[in-house]
Amino acid sequence: MAALDFGTTPEAIENQRKRLLLYASAGLGSIFLGTFCVTSFVQGRMLLAVMLLAFLSIVLVCAYLAKVLKQVQPVCLVLGLVLFFLSSYLLLSGGADGTGAYWSYAVTMLMVLLVGPKIGLVYMTLYLVINSIALYSTLPLVYAYSDISISRIIATSITLYTLILASEWIRVASYSAISTTSESHREQANTDPLTHILNRLGVQTRLKSRPLDPASALVIIDIDNFKEINDKQGHDFGDRVLVKLASLLKQHTKGGDIVGRWGGEEFLVILNDTSTTSAAELISKIKEHFQQEALFHEGKHIPITFSAGIAALDHAEAFETATKQADLRLYKAKEQGRNRVIAAD
């Protein structure tokens, strides 16, 4: 059996949950409302039959709208209001021989599930207040329940609706906690713990989730002689160098750009809506800043440089090709003496 596609964001998941609930409501409504409508018609209860048919028609229209619309929350609010009136009608009219009260419980529960706990609390409070007053009134259209039956209906309704509202509040709160935890874990999985920029997985994930402009540039940067730096000045100093370069890259790039640690002393940058020529100018500027930054070890200034290769990246599917091309140009920059940026063969 294929798994249902609920989406990947909390909003998409909740939207799909309500869509499926609307479909289920339409399916069950077609069976029960349709059956009761025919039964009422056969038994001569024409007003009840017409009312049930009208409510059934609205439920089916809402199910159709849920299918064609992207966001189903407005449909849920409308259907919730319809269920509010349907449940009130079943309770106050008594349905068939006073059995309408029993069916009103299921209808109002569905109402809360559709609209959610916050709006559900408003609907349910109005429902209890209005219908409690009506049940104790002498209105001609209200079914003649006994006083003990009315008190039991109200007490049962309050207990049941408190439970369903509490359940919905707990569901929403627990889902929010799960979503927050999941997002935190995802962020940790996609972030380099030292430099706090994207890691290799994060770069690839971000590239898939964000569309690229037609003319973008991919840059691979490698710190020159980094192994020698680590051997002579120690790994703590090497970490400071990595953090400094990551900080400079973040400072000189835009929000739509992608900056990540590609591995070891290599960094990968995707400059959105940027030509290779403009990218070379920007990376050269960053290179000069990086070279001039005062990094000291045991009171001595240690000059650090990097080399970079740049390639055009027209679309996300060309990522592997552009990466190989930029890597070749980076290798050429190393061969030509390091501390340089190469953007063309």
The strand count comes to 7
Q: SS-based structural class?
A: alpha+beta
Mean pLDDT: 88
Please tell me what the overall shape is: elongated
Helical segment count: 11
Helix content: 55-70%
Give the biggest beta sheet: 5 strands, mixed
Which features would summarize this protein structure in a list?
five-stranded mixed sheet; 65% helix; elongated; two-stranded antiparallel ribbon; alpha+beta; Alpha-Beta Plaits; 345 residues; 2 domains
Please characterize this protein's 3D structure.
The chain has 345 residues and is an alpha+beta fold. It folds into 2 domains: 178 residues, no CATH class; 143 residues, Alpha-Beta Plaits. The protein contains 11 helices and 7 strands. The strands form 2 sheets. Strands 2-3-1-6-7 form a 5-stranded mixed beta sheet, with helices on both faces. Strands 4-5 form a two-stranded antiparallel sheet. A hairpin with a 2-residue loop joins strand 2 and strand 3. The protein starts with 9 loop residues before the first helix and ends with a strand. The model has no long low-confidence stretch (mean pLDDT 88).
